[in-house]
Amino acid sequence: MQISSKILDTAVEQLSSLPGIGRRTALRLALHLLQRNELEIHDFAHSIIDLKLKVLHCKKCGNISDQEVCEICLNPNRIEKIVCVVEDIRDIIAIEATGAFKGLYHVLGGVISPMDGIGPSDLNIEPLLMRVKNKNVDEIIFALSPTMEGDTTNFYLFKKLKESSVLITTLSRGVSVGAELHYADELSLGRSISQRQKYDQ
């Protein structure tokens, strides 16, 4: 695809580096941006810069936040003693969309995957164990994707937590085996949370 402007070509290269954006789509987006006024482009560019420089990770759960502690953790109407363990922020967004969960979260930042060189020490596991050790939790819900890596991580966490008195539950199988949690439809995901079962290794 020959582009007569190096500046436009660079913009297309950057846009096409985003997941799911091919060069044709990137060109269409870049040409659209070219038609916008200077103030709109200024606001657009600064929102991307702010996204990278100002978005924080909640020091309590690992969720994204504009402050040290996220709005979910600060919400007095949430059930503090129930903690839902998820792989990443996309899963929190998916679960929150169901309206079926009123507890708090813990973001692991991934799952155990030896093939990808990801072990337990690469994940946000120790703070979760400390939450349980400090008796701040009555129930842990495993809400990881029902994949081999998700199941491996569930089992690892279960072994670490089984000596504690905390109740360990998992989503019912409303989410298809092998599917990513954040791709599940809201109805199935909400039902899986409401009908969660005691974790069985």
Instruction: Give the fraction of residues assigned to helices.
Output: 40-55%
What coarse outline follows from CA principal-axis ratios? elongated
DSSP strand count:
7
Within the CATH hierarchy, at the fold level, what is the topology of the largest domain? Answer: Dna Topoisomerase Vi A Subunit, Chain: A, domain 2
In order across it, which strands form the biggest sheet?
4-3-5-6-7
Tell me the count of domains. Answer: 2
N to C succession of SSEs: HHHEEHEHEHEHEHE
Number of helices: 8
- Given the helix and strand composition, which structural class is it? alpha/beta
Largest sheet, strands/sense/barrel: 5 strands, mixed
Distance N to C terminus:
54 Å
CATH architecture of the largest domain: 3-Layer(aba) Sandwich
CATH class of the largest domain: Alpha Beta
Rounded mean pLDDT is 90
Radius of gyration based on Cα positions:
21 Å
Low-confidence parts: none
Percentage of residues in DSSP E strands: 5-15%
Description:
- The protein has helices at 6-16, 23-35, 38-54, 71-74, 89-98, 126-133, 148-161, 186-194, and strands at 56-57, 64-65, 79-86, 103-107, 139-142, 167-170, 197-198.
- The chain is α/β, with parallel strands linked by helices and 201 residues long.
- The chain has two domains: 6-54, Orthogonal Bundle (Helicase, Ruva Protein, domain 3); 64-198, Dna Topoisomerase Vi A Subunit, Chain: A, domain 2, CATH 3.40.1360.10.
- A five-stranded mixed β-sheet has the order 4-3-5-6-7. It has a two-stranded antiparallel sheet with strand order 1-2.
- β3, α5 (89-98) and β4 form a beta-alpha-beta unit.
- α1 crosses α2 (23-35) and α5 (89-98) packs across α8 (186-194).
- The protein is elongated.
- The N and C termini lie far apart (54 Å).
- The model has no long low-confidence stretch (mean pLDDT 90).
